[in-house]
């Protein structure tokens, strides 16, 4: 089992503590994901950035806890843990479902993050498109259809998609997160004041650049759209440019231009 990382509280895992770092990056996993997904990223970030990853209930070291069923309520539960670490400049990164969780956390905070990175996810206010990501689809009655969808968007390793025993272990969390994501309804409110950078893979069959561009409506703090090589989980093949992007926030070169890059 991959170690969960240093536990700062029930909600956050710090895989590589950097108490002297001037900035921090808080990551929010995708549907079915856990804090372990980002373990290798901590070593790639510069020493000036400490990475903390949200550990949702019901997985890994929180396996015995009930799975969350309401996304806004989940976000509200995460807020105090993030605020307790708000003594440093902070950016959020959320992938797929995690982007929506990160957004809902940000809009509930008294001290908003310096930047919100939203990855492979349609804007909260966007209507469902013809090919929504698996975390937004109506959960199939046939679990084999869910397995098919994960294969289609590149959402899992064939090793456990093709292994019935491994699939049975991960299916309850995937099914739950899909239902929670599907039930989410955006409630209108003031836009964020921090910049938003939306990131999408150029071969993503679930979320395209036009979908990601609608995130600009959710901030008055500036917006950027970045397109990287890869599918819905583009970072498996494009981690170096993503790490460079996540490392540059706060610099003049990282200021939003409104252009697709």
TrEMBL record:
GO terms for molecular function: hydrolase activity. One of its GO terms (biological process) is lipid biosynthetic process. SMART domains: PKS_TE. Residues 123-142 are annotated as: Disordered. It holds the Pfam family Thioesterase. Transmembrane segments: none annotated. Residues 26-250 form the Thioesterase TesA-like domain. Gene3D superfamilies: alpha/beta hydrolase. InterPro entries: AB_hydrolase_fold, TEII, TesA-like, Thioesterase. Keywords: Hydrolase. Belongs to the thioesterase family. This is Thioesterase. It comes from Actinoplanes auranticolor.
